[in-house]
Amino acid sequence: MRQVLTRIEQADALDGASDKLQAAVSSAVRPRTLRDLLHGTWMGHPLHPVLVQVPVGAFLSAAVLDALPSRSPSSRSRASGSGDRASTVLIGVGLAGVLPAAVAGWVDWSELTKDRRRVGLVHAVTNLVATGLYASSLAARLTGRTKQGKALAYAGLSVAGVGAFLGGHLSYTQGAGISHAAPEVARVPEGWTVAGSLSSLPEGKPAARRVGDTAVLLFRQGDRVTALIDRCSHEGGPLSEGQVSDGCVVCPWHGSTFRLDDGAVVHGPAGNDQPVLPVRVRDGLVEVRRP
Length: 291
Ligand code: FES
Fold this sequence. Notes:
Keywords: 2Fe-2S, Iron, Iron-sulfur, Membrane, Metal-binding, Transmembrane, Transmembrane helix. The chain is an alpha+beta fold. It is built from 9 helices and 11 strands.
């Protein structure tokens, strides 16, 4: 399995199609507000994994209902009929949920590096095949071919399982969509730790400091200082090298924008907020600790 995944990651034959699709997705979903909506910026969490719960839940529930035996010979026909109807409705609901989940997924995909786009492309094609099988299952059920409909749905579930496995690899092994800043928080000392002197901080500009092993961004306005993890939650860019405007810092790598007060993501491609650290000023020294 690992060898297959490595081959997909290294399959540069996919890059031609991947580059064309990336350009198509970027031009089809151009307005920044729409991209932010689909990235999940508005809720500080990627939207795609939330939306996929609809088809996954509906398809799995339909599979369970399809596997249930009738309760008794006398009620067999009635029970079986209502179970089949419920499965058909669930598969319809799952299919309706595929489009929004796919659109959000494509927008996230269009911001990924080449190796992750290769895995994402195979993930998308696999899910497309699964969707086709479920659509055929729905058509079979609606025309009275229940047995065939069940077989097609189980085939769809198997293919969707492969798609889910690839999606999990993309997130948990390749780090797509996860917060690259969150692991840094655990490395900040638990107790108050000096990050530098207040007088050394420029007014209204981000400054990079280290607290223990962790790079932090300090932002001073008068006597007030806010502290964020310096590693951008999107892909780990150095936020302290970004521009500040309207109370936000803009990441120099891909333009994700975070509020300096509370770390909330205002514009993507980041879907995750930026962690903020507690700060106090004592005897002219700025101290920071783990939340
Ligand atoms: S690393 Fe991509 S926006 Fe910061």
